[in-house]
């Protein structure tokens, strides 16, 4: 009889929760953890277990870390003043799968610390959104040793539609994610600019969407985020405040490489303006409100 894969997931936000569901559906014996009690209770009701990480971590073969940023990833893996980290409790040979968007240098530094403790580290940022996370159809850009890939494989198979193997050195997965985030951030800002520009020319945002999604100007961001503007619905699929972090990572890497990235810098300024206007917790399509406000335009608003 084949034993069930033993996996832990740390972080049950919109992405992590769907990934946890995919792991359960694939038959993993799953331990789930989050600082918020409500998603933990929900995923336990669906078949996961929870408890003290120090007690459960020694029995895990792999740990999937789905938190916001590098600081939170380090806290889970290395610990802080409030709690010890996973490296103090995972058994030698276990694999850490780090899914947050972080700078390539942060991924390399954390990997070196983890590997020095006899653990494997897969630099594995994710893309696809909450719906694909719940369907097990994420795209994962991963880099790490052969042993790290082997240890992560049961979880990768459950969570991803495609795994791009970026090489044996941690950091290359995060570098590829930076390329992706550069494009998506620019394109969301461009969607907002184009829709509000059309409005300034007397073209309703719904009409712009109808036309552009069938023309060469279309993009994933336009097609995916445009309906949020049309409906005036800014409940966050991905919040405005994600982008100062992610585009900041891109620009830091570009600066280190002496690479000029003016479109990224411009998009970042628009997201910063949106965040500074109190829109940080709204969906990132709310960057359109910055353009509309500056031009004296009125966008659709959903009913309260």
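-> sequence recovered:
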């Amino acid at each position: 009889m084949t034993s069930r894969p033993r996996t832990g997931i740390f972080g049950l936000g919109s992405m992590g929760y769907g990934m946890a569901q995919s792991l359960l559906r694939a038959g993993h014996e799953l331990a789930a953890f989050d600082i918020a009690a409500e998603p933990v209770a929900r995923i336990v009701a669906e078949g996961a277990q929870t408890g003290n990480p120090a007690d459960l971590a020694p029995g895990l073969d792999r740990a999937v870390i789905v938190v916001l940023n590098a600081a939170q990833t380090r806290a889970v893996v290395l610990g802080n003043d409030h709690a010890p980290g996973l490296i103090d409790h995972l058994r030698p040979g276990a694999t850490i799968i780090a899914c947050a968007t972080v700078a390539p240098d942060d991924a390399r530094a954390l990997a070196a610390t983890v590997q020095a403790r006899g653990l494997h580290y897969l630099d594995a940022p994710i893309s696809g959104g909450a719906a694909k996370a719940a369907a097990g159809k994420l795209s994962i850009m991963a880099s790490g040793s052969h042993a790290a890939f082997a240890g992560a494989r049961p979880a990768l198979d459950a969570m991803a539609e495609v795994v791009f193997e970026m090489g044996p050195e941690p950091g290359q997965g995060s570098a590829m994610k930076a390329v992706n985030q550069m494009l998506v951030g620019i394109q969301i800002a461009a969607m907002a600019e184009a829709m509000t520009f059309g409005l300034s020319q007397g073209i309703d945002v719904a009409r712009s969407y109808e036309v552009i999604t069938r023309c060469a100007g279309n993009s994933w961001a336009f097609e995916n985020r445009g309906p949020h503007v049309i409906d005036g619905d800014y409940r966050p699929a991905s919040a405005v405040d994600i982008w100062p972090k992610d585009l900041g990572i891109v620009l830091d890497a570009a600066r280190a490489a002496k690479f000029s990235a003016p479109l990224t810098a411009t998009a970042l300024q628009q997201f910063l303006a949106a965040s500074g206007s109190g829109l940080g917790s709204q969906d990132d399509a709310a960057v359109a409100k910055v353009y509309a406000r500056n031009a004296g335009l009125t966008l659709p608003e959903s009913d309260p």
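The beta strands are 6-10, 29-33, 62-65, 95-98, 120-123, 126-127, 138-142, 160-165.
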